[in-house]
Amino acid sequence: MSKGPVTATKEGTLLNLRVSPGAKRTEIEGPYGENAIKLRASSPPVNGRANAEVERVLAILLDVPLSAVSVVRGASSRDKTVLVRGLEPAETRKALAAHLG
What we know:
Layout: E1 6-8, E2 12-21, E3 27-32, E4 36-41, H1 49-62, E5 69-73, E6 79-85, H2 89-100
Parallel strand pairs: 2-4
Antiparallel strand pairs: 1-2, 2-6, 3-4, 5-6
């Protein structure tokens, strides 16, 4: 994992997440240690449904098209890395600031 939950890449921004599938509701819980963001997903971890929900929720929160958000690492793990194409890390941090307290 990289330093901090939000990292710049050539394509956009990488987000390190710790996902808890099967929660009562989908929400960003807050920081998970120093290097990740804790996200609860209401979908179960079956047939990629939790991953799809993570992508959908992040697209809405970051105000980007769904096609710009994809899980690039950890598809079958709780620890995931998500690529947000076309969004700078500063913009990502600003959009998530209210959820990270």
